[in-house]
Each structure stands twice: as C-alpha cells, then as structure tokens.
Amino acid sequence: MEDKKDGMNYAPKGKPVTVVKEGEFIIAAVALDHGHIYGMCNGLTEAGATLKWVYDPDNEKVRRFQKSFPEVMAAESEEQILNDPEVKLVCGAAVTSLRCELGLRVMAAGKDYFTDKAPLTTLEQLDQAKEMVRKTGKKYMVYYSERIHVEAAVFAGELIEKGAIGTPIHIDGFGPHRVGNPESRPDWFFEKDKYGGILCDIGSHQIEQFLYYCGVRDATVTYSQIGNYKYKEYPELDDFGDAVLVGDNGTTQHFRVDWLTPDGLSTWGDGRTFILGTEGYIELRKYINVGTGDNTSNHVYLVDGNGEHHFEVSGKVGYPFFGELILDCINRTENAMTQEHAFKAAELCVKAQLQAKTRSLTKVSKDAT
Amino acid sequence: MEDKKDGMNYAPKGKPVTVVKEGEFIIAAVALDHGHIYGMCNGLTEAGATLKWVYDPDNEKVRRFQKSFPEVMAAESEEQILNDPEVKLVCGAAVTSLRCELGLRVMAAGKDYFTDKAPLTTLEQLDQAKEMVRKTGKKYMVYYSERIHVEAAVFAGELIEKGAIGTPIHIDGFGPHRVGNPESRPDWFFEKDKYGGILCDIGSHQIEQFLYYCGVRDATVTYSQIGNYKYKEYPELDDFGDAVLVGDNGTTQHFRVDWLTPDGLSTWGDGRTFILGTEGYIELRKYINVGTGDNTSNHVYLVDGNGEHHFEVSGKVGYPFFGELILDCINRTENAMTQEHAFKAAELCVKAQLQAKTRSLTKVSKDAT
Predict the structure, then answer these.
(1) CATH for the stretch B147-318
(2) Distance to chain B for A314, nearest Cα, Å
(3) Tens digit of each residue's pLDDT (9 = 90 or more) over A80-94
C-alpha cells in the first residue's frame, strides 16, 4: 500500500537488503490504528524479518493488513502473540496515547517493541517506559519515519557525517500534512488526549531529525506555539504548530508542522529540511519537487564551497535502519538508534506540546502597509 | 552595477514606468556607505525622478557613483544639497547607526528622506525620527529591498491580495547572505554598534515582509537569538540569527538570517519566503532556483486547491514601490508604504536584536544517535 495523497498511509518500499534469513527473526504486528504499521512492517520484512502474526480487535483492519502481507497469520488475541516465544519484536501503531501501555505489555513479555511515532503522549508514560527498559533490558524503538524511511533524509545523514557542510549549526524543518477527507480519519485523530497534540504527534519527526543531524543528546524547547486556524469544526485538532529548540551543543532548530496541505499538491505534504552548517547547507525536498510536475521525490540539494549539487536519490540509498534494528535486537547493540535518542525525542515533543502557547486569528489589518 | 555574487552591491534594474517627467521630481544621494544606494537611485530614476546631486566625504565613492549616474553633479557639501529648494527627496545609505541623524537633518531641511534599511539602530533614534515626522510632516521612508525590489516578492503580494492562499497565517523567511572577502567590507560592517546586529540589519527585511504579507500593524517579538559561529575573527559580527514574531492579528513568523552563504552558491544568497495560508501556500525563491544551474531568479510557487503553479517573473512585474513613493511625496499620500509600517518594522528589528539570546557551539555529541 503506497498512497502518495495521504501521509497516514504512505508506506515506502525500499530495495531489500536482508540481514537475516527466513525464520531467523520473527516479528508480529499488534494494533493497526495508524497506517504507518504498513511502512514499519515493509521495512522490517524487506530487511529479512519474518512477520508471523497480526492482531487487532477490528477484523476489517486485520483482513486489509493480510492483503498486503499474505503470509501473516491472524492471532486470536494479543496474548497469543505475547505468549509466543518465537516472536522477538512486536510492531505497534496503536492510538498514540495507548502506545506506551502496549509497549509495557510487550516488554514485560520479554520482547522488544517497535512503535509508530509519537511513541507516547505524556511524561508519566515516558517514566514508565524508561523504568520498563531498565527492568527488562528490552527496547522501546520508534518509527520516526520522516528520517529513517525517507531516502533523502538518510542520504543527508551520510553527507553530514562526511563533513559536507562543516559543523551543522541550525535546522529548519517543515512538516506539512494533509487531513484529506476528515470523515476518513478515525475519531481519535481529532481528540487531543489521544493523538497528543500536533507538536507531540508530527512534531516528533522534526525533533528527532534535529537530535540526529546536529548530534544533540539533550535540548531545551525554548519556544513553542500551536493554533487551530482552519479546521474549526475539530477544535482539538492543532492544525498548526511550531517550535524552537536549543541543543546541548549550542545548535538550534526551528520547525513548523501543519495540517494545511492544499488539495492541489500532488502528494500529501511538501516536507522540507534545511540544514545549515559552517561550510555549506543542505535542503531536502522529501516527497515532491514542487511545481515541476515530474512526480519525483527524495531531492537533496547540497551547496558547499565548490558549487551547488543536486541529487535525486529515490531507490539509491535504501533504509539501513531496519536491518540495523534487527541486528540490534539480536546482538543487543544500538546501531540503528539508541534508546536514549528515541526517548529524548519523545520527551522533547511532549514538552514542546505542554508549553505551547495557543494562537488564533483575530482581526486582519489589511491596510497595514 | 549589478553584482550577483555580492548582496551589498546587488542593484536591480527594472522596466522603467515613469510617473513624472524629467525635472518634475528632483532627488539627491547623500552618504554612499552601503551599495544599496545604487538600487535606491535606480528604482527612483527608472520611475522618473531626476537625480541632481550626490555627496559623500569620500571622493572615490562619488566618482564611482557618477560612473553609474553620469548626469548627477557632485555637491561640495551636504549643506549644498539640503539648501537646494529643488531637491524634494534625499536618498541615503549611511553607516546604519548614522542613518537616523542624516534623516533628521534632511527632514529639518524640509525634504523627505529615503534611507537604506535598517533605517536606524536604537529605540532612542526611533523616537527622534517619529518626533521629527510629527514636527515636519516629512517622510522617513525605507528601502526594504528584499520585498520592494524583488519581483517575486512583489508578485507574492499581488497573489495574497487576490486571496490566492486564503488567509495568511504564518511566514517562514530565510535571508542568507554572503560575507565575501571580509577585507572588501568596510570596518563598520563588523562593529555591532554601527551595523546594529544581524536581526536589526538584515532581519529588518524579514520583519517588514511579515507585516506586509500578513497584514500586521503591530507585533511582539516572542523569541530571538543570535550567534557568531564561523567568523570568530570578527566577534561582533552575528553570522546567524533567528526570531519568532506574533502579529496583532494572530499570525506568526519565524525567520532566519545568516552570513553563511557558501562560496559555491552562484549568487549571494538563497533567499526564500514561505507564506502559509488557510487555503494554500507560496514559496519564493528570490535570487536563485538552487541546483538548476539555469541562472534564473524570481521563482514563485503557488500551491492551492487546484494545483501547483510555478511562475518565473523576472522582468514581468516591475517595482511599483518607486513610482508610488514619488507620487506619495508629491501628493502627500501613503500608497507606497505608510510611515507607521516603515517605523513598525524598524522598531521590531531593534527589539528582536535587543532581546536576543546569544548562542555558541560547545561540544558536539557525535554519538547521540
């Protein structure tokens, strides 16, 4: 399933590079509330994982999932999966506010957990998750898809690692998304205590990218704000939010997220990342090169001391995260992503949401010029 | 003089649309410290103004100016110009901290003043300028060139006015600039009390665009920060700054300015403006369409309910500001720009600078992922 009109169901397929053989690393999918579960399972199965089970209380969701993954067996209950010693990792895309509870059950059952972002919605959940990691030694990994499942974003990480822009100092990220037909969205999408607020939800992608590209271990949310500008009939939907973060190494980020992608855009969002370094800068046009009509994606622009370089990397980079995650689970390493990193992004996106000021349009002073 | 490698000497030439006949509106140029004086005089003479006098204590600067404007006479002193009753408007591009003083003398002499941005560097100067406007009824107008002298920016204003993106709610602006060879810059460029700090100096362009595009009459700088990341040998040069503003109508802005344009970029800065509305968005690529190598500029991308629209408007829009300013001076109207607007942008850029937190790189935690 790959639907470019709708980010919720955007599930990239990469070039398969398997790190394990059939049956060597067995996974399951529990809770299919968000379409990201497809991308998560694509990534892992392409890297060699064997998807044994699926479970969701909604049989319709299970049947649809089985169309994409015909080998997977429908479990009768979550317990059946948690009690299966063959299953090493459980993937989940529950309602955001329930992702932590699911993870706690998964880890308590002795399995690693891989959840859709945002991985949780409150600082209390974060404490519980950290405690469970300490107790069990299991992983609570997160599908921050806008970096790990976007070839342009992966390539940017490689460029920065090579020093292509000197020392990164600042990132600007835009994460526009399309609501689409609100009727096609589940109710929880519009309930803030369930989806967590825009800075927690889609903001988590942005903050994770800041930590990653700028080499930040800890950061402060120095400013954040949210608004409901367009979707007045859904007052709990923040359709806009932005924030400024300062990293412990002195780097800074501003990001903007919104649910305002116009119908005329040929994909679900014109996601961009601009990474400014001391010796150059990178721009990512992740899902579209707007206005060109060429239906391409994964554009990377690098400007350095020597010139302007343009790479179109679709199909050329792959998604190393998934194979690394499988090997991390097997070898108890942290090459795909450290637990500290996954939790720090979660913490900061909850904090950004908690401290956000609420904005709304008042009068518009048209004659101000 | 049009030098695309160097923003300081970037002086656009537009298609002439004259609003007055030769000799009907006489202007002079005083203080040639910043190359913007060329763009200012281009704009006004193309609109019909007659450039009678030039004065600067540096004869070399005057001789260079006369090469671009062969009709202009070199005055022996500033007084000679201020005492000439034919002169209606004096253009100045003094050292930033001296722009207000010059303006006060010009207005006291009964003439309108048109200064390069930033128009002043302190709130005390702003008070003096406002007082002089009250006393004399003369104008203290400002060359916010990154909007009024950029066809893409002018066109964006027309699109917004037509409602192309619904109600604007948020703007992101990037104003990257190139230092070039620091030796070629005057000393004052690196002295903060003279150039005013980056948020005051090149930040003023950004704030003016926010007020204009979002129809904002007053705003609060809710966050700002500056840094000296690369040009350590010039510790008073902020080579980075960004800020968040909230308008009185609930709209918001984030902008970033910097002096970090890499040598490899084929123009002086990859200036962008992203205007997000309830029904669509606009992206401006003002000076370059990076990575295309096609040497074009003034790209406007509009995405609305119907599709993605791309306009390349170089030579197609012109710069109506200059003709409007001439007519405003003659008719005592405010069509080009209100005094309130010019001063509000000045006030906010000074405030953004005053309250900015200073950032610097410390350690870089490379293993944070």
Answers:
(1) 3.30.360.10
(2) 17
(3) 999 999 999 999 999
